[in-house]
Amino acid sequence: MRTIAIVNQKGGCGKTTTTVALAGCLADGGARVLVVDLDPQAHATLALGGVPELIERNLYDVLAEPGGEERLAEVLLPAGAGIDLAPSGIVLSALEQRLAAERGEGRTRRLAACLSRLEERYDFALVDCPPNVGLLTFNALRAAQEVIVPLETSFFAIHGGQRLLETIGLLSQRLGVKPRVRVLPTLYDGRTRYARDTLAEIREIFGDACFDTVVRCNVKLREAARLGVPISRLAPSSNGAADYGVLALELCASHAAQEAALPEVWSRDAAASAARPLAGPR
Q1: Rounded to an integer, what distance in angstroms lies between the CA atom of residue 220 and that of residue 53?
Q2: What is the secondary structure of 206-225 as a DSSP string?
Q3: Which of 34, 65, 76, 258 has a Cα-to-Cα distance from 112 of 20 to 30 A?
Q4: CA atoms within 13 Å, Cβ hemisphere of 69
């Protein structure tokens, strides 16, 4: 199972939209997908048709106490063909404080321990993180092999993205993990010169850490969230469905290339590769 955390401390950048739309496109391609809603706002739960107030048990019941790994499967909800949901709720906001009162590294390992029980059940686990870098996000980074940072095409988003990648790098070293981190340009309006110039700047700054895929502004994405279905199932011919379909293909293609190159890379210098710090912005 590939565990991918979708992270950005800035709201309104397309984080939840990316989680849900990507889940739909991957599932449409035959993958088994688990969406983990780690945001107390429960937007991914809402965007997949759930009603947080009516859900009796959510991730809080799984992560609040040590040894909750076996309970994750019990709270999962079906969210359409090929997609299961680990739901969230406002009570999850209390989990941050509860974990902060504990000591030791176990408080950042809980999600990883839970997901390890489901590795044979799913091809992808997509973790929608809260809009801050706290203990819930720490849990996501500990569990993930990959990180996607949705970045809207604006000047302030670029500055925040650079700081966020630096923060993720420092946290990854502290947690002893080394996820692959990539930036996804979102909310792109190619009709404006400002957006085109900003996209060029994003590609120049982040280099190989930037996806080739660009997600365009598309009202259908908002409609899909309101109706509780992935964009590929509401409007398969829309720009939003096309963009996230390309992202799904790029993820699968890049993973295949990485897997093919892995023996050669590790045979050159496995120890040096493992010790190398996480790459930051270029």
Answers
A1: 26
A2: HGGGB-S--PBP-HHHHHHH
A3: 258
A4: 14
SS3 53: helix
Q: Enter the tokens of residue 41.
A: 């706002």
User: How far is Cα of residue 246 from the mean position of the Cα atoms in its chain?
Assistant: 16
How far is residue 166's CA from residue 172's CA, in Å, rounded to a whole number?
10
What is the rounded CA–CA span in Å between residue 36 and residue 118?
A: 12
Question: pLDDT for 84-128, tens place per residue?
Answer: 999 999 999 998 888 888 877 788 899 999 999 999 999 999 999
* Radius of gyration for the alpha carbons in the chain, expressed in angstroms and rounded: 18
Tell me the average pLDDT across 56-83.
Answer: 90
Residue 25 carries which side chain, given as an amino acid letter? C
Token pair for residue 140?
A: 């996501």
How far is it, in rounded angstroms, from Cα 127 to Cα 215? 19
Predicted confidence (pLDDT) per residue in 148-206, tens digit: 999 998 888 888 888 888 888 888 888 888 899 999 999 999 999 999 999 999 999 99
Q: Model-level pTM?
A: 0.87
C-alpha–C-alpha distance, residues 266 and 121, integer Å = 28
Share of residues in the chain with pLDDT > 70 (%): 90
Among 185, 145, 266, smallest CA distance to 8 is for 185
Task: Give dist(CA 201, CA 152) in Å, integer.
Answer: 12
For helices 219-227 and 15-28, the axis angle rounded to 10 degrees is 80
- DSSP-assigned beta bridge partners for residue 112: none
What is the per-residue pLDDT for 274? 31
Structure tokens at 127: 């973790």
Q: Is residue 22 within 8 Å of residue 140, measured between CB atoms?
A: no
